[in-house]
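We were asked to recover a plausible sequence for a given structure. The inputs and outputs are reproduced exactly as logged, with field labels preserved.

PROBLEM: sequence recovery
POSITIONS: 337
GIVEN STRUCTURE:
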């Protein structure tokens, strides 16, 4: 079965052709980084308008890359949640048009489950596992039962992990997106120069939740307070100490979730899963077995959408042309009394 996957949930405009949920036949990932860089973050209005301009060209190039005509497609898959509503609507409307025009079945795909499916385009991964999705928009620790369902154990109560990297990078004048710049600069700094706080949300309902707002404020506005005075207050030292704090607090929750659930397999995804300190630290836990997709499949891409859709189609799922988008996943956050 040859499925076309459309992904426009944030600032990547991507279309891919995947065979039987496994083999990437063709893929185009067009990033809007240059469009958003002047604003040091994704501007939703610019994102949706850029998707509108790009999507049909990206679709055509993906088919060219696959070397097949549109008539060879068997189904159309599209990310409909979670993400920026205006951006999701562009991908969805385009996917509806293609599905209607070609008379093909249409299926909606959850972006979080798609990220956690991504490594399966490159290797065999057994369910269940712990999912760790860390990007500019998401920070999620989940128990993933199969391709179709997951239980969100923890998430951020404020900023996403990648967002914190981007904001700190902006403060240090490192450009946008800042995660990779911090990662690089941190390799020349001393992570012990500053002792940044972890807002301990370890009790009750927050056992696996994280918070990045306080850490960001500590770096941006209260640096003095966390400075270990024997060290130099250099940018590299700030970057290394921030990176250590941001990743340590996340991995503390992952280790806790693994111990509580008895799951040792951790499937990571999202841009921050490329972070070298995160990978090194996860590797230092012999009780965990960390699995990452290749760098291209870590970030947003149409292949993970088409790959997961194969399984949805396989169990008979179909959506109609009344399909809508949702900025958040149902049950994304546990409700509070
Ligand atoms: O998954 P992604 O490409 O896009 C979405 O947010 O959906 O993730 C981008 C995020 C940005 O916040 C970026 O700064 C961060 O991932 N990032 C990193 C690294 N590479 C990308 N953060 C830390 N270390 C990295 N090496
Ligand atoms: Zn994503």
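RECOVERED SEQUENCE:
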């Amino acid at each position: 079965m040859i499925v076309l996957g459309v992904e426009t949930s944030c600032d990547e405009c991507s279309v891919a052709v995947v065979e039987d949920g496994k083999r990437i036949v063709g893929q185009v990932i067009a990033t809007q980084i240059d469009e958003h860089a002047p604003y040091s973050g994704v501007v939703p209005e610019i994102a949706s308008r850029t998707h509108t301009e790009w999507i049909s060209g990206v679709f055509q190039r993906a088919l060219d890359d696959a070397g097949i005509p549109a008539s060879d497609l068997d189904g159309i898959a599209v990310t409909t949640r979670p993400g920026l509503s205006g951006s999701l609507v562009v991908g969805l409307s385009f996917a509806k048009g293609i599905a209607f025009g070609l008379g093909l079945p249409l299926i909606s795909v959850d972006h979080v489950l798609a990220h956690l499916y991504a490594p399966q385009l490159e290797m065999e991964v057994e369910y269940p596992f712990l999912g760790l999705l860390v990007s500019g928009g998401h920070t999620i620790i989940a128990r993933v039962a199969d391709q179709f369902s997951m239980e969100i154990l923890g998430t951020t109560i404020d900023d996403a992990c990648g967002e914190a990297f981007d904001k700190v990078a902006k403060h240090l004048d490192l450009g946008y997106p800042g995660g990779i710049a911090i990662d690089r600069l941190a390799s020349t700094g001393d992570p012990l120069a500053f002792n940044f706080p972890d807002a301990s949300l370890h009790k009750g309902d927050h056992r696996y939740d994280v918070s990045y707002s306080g850490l960001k404020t500590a770096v941006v506005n209260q640096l003095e307070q966390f400075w270990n005075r024997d060290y130099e207050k250099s940018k590299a030292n700030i970057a290394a100490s921030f990176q250590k704090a941001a990743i340590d607090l996340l991995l503390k929750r992952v280790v806790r979730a693994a111990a509580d659930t008895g799951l040792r397999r951790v499937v990571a995804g999202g841009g921050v899963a490329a972070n070298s300190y995160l990978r090194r630290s996860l590797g230092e836990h012999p009780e965990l077995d960390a699995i990452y997709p290749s760098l291209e499949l870590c970030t947003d891409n149409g292949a993970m959408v088409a790959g997961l859709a194969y399984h949805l189609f396989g169990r008979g799922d179909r959506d109609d042309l009344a399909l809508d988008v949702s900025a958040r996943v149902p049950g994304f956050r546990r409700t509070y009394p």
